[in-house]
Write a structure and sequence with these properties.
The chain is α+β, with helices and mostly antiparallel strands. It is built from five helices and three strands; from the N terminus they run H-H-E-H-H-E-E-H. It has one domain: Arc Repressor Mutant, subunit A. The chain has a three-stranded antiparallel β-sheet. Strand 2 and strand 3 form a beta hairpin.
């Protein structure tokens, strides 16, 4: 699929996508969401971080279409946007542990 002949727009979008994975907190949140759908306070407890910090990063991840939100009454639950996010994370781990 990647031919090296991408448009400048596609290079920009790809660069922006990988920037999302350059933050440790965002990766930690994605790894929590790999396990199950969560609300902000659950992620906050699991990562021992403030709800404000988690909310900020979730907003960034949502804007980049890496996570999605669903409302249930007053609660908002977050999950990975699609299976590609899990594939990207898994491929990254495989790459860094590969000899």
């Amino acid at each position: 699929m990647l031919s090296g002949n991408l448009s400048e727009e596609m290079y920009g979008k790809l660069s922006d996508l990988y920037k999302m994975f350059s933050d440790r907190t965002r990766i930690r949140i994605l790894c929590v969401l790999l396990q199950h759908e969560c609300c902000v306070n659950e992620i906050s407890r699991e990562l021992d971080m403030t709800q404000s910090a988690i909310s900020h990063q979730l907003s960034t991840l949502k804007a980049s279409r890496l996570v999605k939100a669903r409302r249930d009454g007053k609660a908002i639950y977050y999950s990975l946007d699609d299976e590609h996010v899990e594939m990207i994370l898994n491929m990254g781990v495989e790459h860094i542990i590969h000899d």
